[in-house]
Design a protein that fits this description.
The chain is mostly beta strands and 123 residues long. It contains no helices and 11 strands. Strand 7 and strand 8 form a beta hairpin. The N and C termini lie far apart (40 Å).
Amino acid sequence: QVHLVESGGGLVQPGGSLRLSCEASGRTRSEYAMAWFRQAPGKEREYVSAITWSGGSTYYHYSVKDRFTISRANAANTVYLQMNKLEPEDTAVYYCAAAFGGIQAHHFEYEFWGQGTQVTVSS
């Protein structure tokens, strides 16, 4: 089992930045990919970004590419999502997820989930 806890959400003005963190505990000695998803009210869950254990491969949704950066510090069992140039459309609950092995193609292939952190982009 891997337990995930997100932090770093909040209220930010359009054009601003936030950095989300997700700390893993439990079975962290196994190699696992980590990902960020988001869900806005009335919308489907959206696959935002993902990163392999080594950090050598990443995935970004087209709407956040060039604005968001995913990274991880395995020594700290933590993955980060640096979000720049935030837009009102980025408002959502952001969830961290983990899966043993490589980056997964679908949300249902991620076995472990955090509780989510709210990001609100508004003036």
